[in-house]
Amino acid sequence: MPFAVRTRPGHPSRRRLAVLALTATALLLPARPAAAAPGLPTDPGPRAGAPAPEAATAAARPPATALPHCVLAAGEQQAPRCFATFPAAIAAATGGWVTGAPASPADALRDPAFAAAVESTPTTLASVLVGIEYADINYGGSTLSMTASGRCDYSLDVDYRFPSLPSGWNDRISSFRSYSNCAQQLFKSTSFTGGALTNIVSSMSYVGSAANDQASSVTFN
């Protein structure tokens, strides 16, 4: 039963005094956090040592990766032009002559129509594809299309030199294919030093265990 307090006439009620005392006590106590509504999750706030929301978002982003298909011209000192797709790289390497190449570099190599299109590049174009270097065996993976100002001749002398390979391609070649009447040779160190890794040949589906991921310079004959 409710607790009742009798009061004298003309004096404040004990109930009123009790309410005032409880109110004053409540004002002096620290406020408690409001209870969450039933069924709703509560936000505990940042924990000690936890990353800020911006840092957590940045950590969740995948790391940036280099574009997988690049084009490098003989004698070019600047960084190569790189593309997200193999067809785009081939179009750039042939001055726009070969478009619509197979999406897969390995499929392109096995396609006679692709080889015919590359070999028919007019000699009047400023960019001729002389070879494609592949990061994987059997002409797979990322590619480095190497271009020159014209086709190779029929002599054994060196027609075009690549004394160094661009960033990401040093010690990475596993297979290659030459075009435009060219054959190529890989060397272990820059500027064609350190010894030849391969003979002068037009293509290799695998450069061999001794040369795999070892080349630092290339010549085209």
Descriptive key words:
221 residues; alpha+beta; Gamma-B Crystallin, domain 1; three-stranded antiparallel beta sheet; 20% helix; 9 strands; six-stranded mixed beta sheet; disordered N terminus; single chain
Descriptive notes:
It is a single chain. This protein is of the alpha+beta class. It has a domain at 69-220: Crystallins (Gamma-B Crystallin, domain 1), CATH 2.60.20.10. It is 20% helix and 19% strand. It is built from 5 helices and 9 strands. It has helices at 14-28, 53-60, 86-93, 105-110, 112-119, and strands spanning 69-73, 81-83, 128-136, 140-148, 160-162, 175-178, 184-187, 203-204, 217-220. Strands 2-1-4-3-6-8 form a 6-stranded mixed sheet. A 3-stranded antiparallel sheet has the order 5-9-7, with no helix packed on it. A hairpin with a 3-residue loop joins strand 3 and strand 4 (140-148). The longest helix has 15 residues, at 14-28. The termini are far apart. Residues 1-65 have low confidence and may be disordered.
